[in-house]
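Structure (tokenized):
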């Protein structure tokens, strides 16, 4: 394979790895916890994802209940109680809470989704070489490497997650997170939840 073509193919493969090979990156942009942290144990968490997309709702709720269970915290996903989104009335929410026998509720919703697209112009790189005259110039130009223009897209999804105590109805913990380039796969949801779980543990919300 000519060196020029090999280099272009290598650049193209590297770009694909950047765009599609890397998982999403998540960071918590703000986090708050009630002080002092409630001393009573959490016995059952009702996990609610506010989403009109059924698949996203189930993936998120399942991921959080699985990771809470791995932390020895009992949890139940709201979609296992009702397939339909919970209506925004107090009685509708209380009905699901009673069915779940939950003493704690974790609610997550989408705050924002922002997508930006950037165009990167192509470049020409010449290999170092001394040349003179027509033949020397031709050989030098032949060895130049051209990188075609590329377009990259960056999506940032912002989520807000809150934990409430059912008895007092007070907010116990809240966090906002940004995730870059999520693909809405189960592994993506698991990665975001893992970041939030780490914050819950650092703040001693979970035993």
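Design, position by position:
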């Amino acid at each position: 394979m000519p060196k020029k073509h090999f280099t272009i193919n290598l650049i193209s493969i590297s770009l694909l790895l950047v765009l599609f090979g890397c998982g999403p990156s998540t960071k918590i942009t703000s986090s708050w916890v009630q002080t002092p942290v409630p001393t009573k144990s959490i016995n059952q968490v009702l996990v609610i994802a506010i989403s009109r997309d059924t698949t996203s709702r189930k993936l998120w709720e399942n991921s959080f209940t699985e990771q809470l269970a791995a932390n020895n915290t009992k949890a139940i996903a709201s979609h296992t109680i009702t397939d339909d989104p919970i209506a925004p009335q107090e009685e509708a929410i209380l009905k699901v809470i009673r069915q779940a026998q939950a003493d704690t509720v974790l609610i997550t919703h989408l705050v924002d989704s922002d997508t930006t697209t950037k165009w990167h112009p192509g470049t020409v790189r010449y290999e170092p070489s001394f040349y003179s005259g027509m033949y020397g110039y031709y050989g030098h130009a032949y060895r130049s490497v051209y990188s075609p223009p590329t377009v990259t897209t960056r999506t940032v999804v912002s989520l807000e997650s809150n934990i409430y105590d059912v008895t007092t109805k007070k907010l116990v913990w809240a966090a906002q997170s940004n995730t870059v380039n999520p693909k809405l796969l189960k592994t993506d949801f698991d990665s975001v939840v893992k970041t939030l779980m780490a914050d819950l543990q650092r703040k001693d919300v979970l035993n």
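Reviewer-requested clarification: The first helix runs from residue 3 to 21. The CA atoms of residues 47 and 97 lie 10 Å apart.
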